[in-house]
Write a structure and sequence with these properties.
By secondary structure, the chain is an alpha+beta fold. It has a single domain, classed as Alpha-Beta Complex (Nucleoside Triphosphate Pyrophosphohydrolase). Strands 4, 5, 6, 7, 8, 9 and 10 form a 7-stranded mixed β-sheet that branches. The protein has a 3-stranded antiparallel β-sheet with strand order 1-2-3, with no helix packed on it. A hairpin with a 6-residue loop joins strand 2 and strand 3. The protein is elongated, with a radius of gyration of 18 Å. The protein starts with a strand and ends in an 8-residue tail after the last helix.
């Protein structure tokens, strides 16, 4: 493999067969869940952004429906069951080691369960706008912007 110009970017390519190695972006999926005018957040146990807080989220597995990813990640990280309602946005995060470069943000309805941090979350809780902890990721901050827009609309079903 050699590095050569392919289109508008330098890419790794085979000098014999001309195969080009394209790096695939990591896709993250998360859910904005609101209860009683508070947003659900989890504290990260892992890098990147260890110790900071984000909406429940994780990487999309090959062949997995992004809506199922969002519901799975909420359950794994918080013990809560949710149902995805709608797509809020598709975002990009600045490149960082280990993070998702593309982030799919859904709004989800809380169905039940007992909140308990799990998987790669050290803590989980619902936070009002005036008590938000230190946030991780541009996508989390964007989710909070959506939260601010919709929290008064129909917070019982979000």
């Amino acid at each position: 493999m050699v590095t050569r110009q392919v289109g508008d970017k330098p890419r790794r390519a085979c000098s014999s067969c001309h195969y080009v190695y394209f790096t695939d972006p990591k896709v993250g999926v998360g859910a904005l869940v609101i209860r009683d005018d508070k947003v659900l957040l989890v504290q990260r146990l892992m890098q990147p952004e260890q110790g900071k807080w984000s909406i429940p989220a994780g990487f999309l597995d090959h062949g997995e429906d992004p809506r199922q990813t969002a519901e799975r990640e909420v359950f794994e990280e918080t013990g809560l069951r949710v149902r995805v309602l709608d797509l809020l946005d598709v975002l990009t995060n600045p490149l960082q080691k280990g993070g998702a470069s593309i982030f799919i943000l859904f709004r989800a309805e809380l169905l039940g369960g007992e909140i308990e941090a799990g998987d790669d979350a050290g803590a989980a809780g619902f936070f009002a706008p005036h008590e938000l902890p230190e946030l991780a990721f541009a996508s989390t901050r964007e989710a909070i912007r959506y939260y601010s827009q919709i929290k008064g609309d129909d917070n019982q079903s979000v």
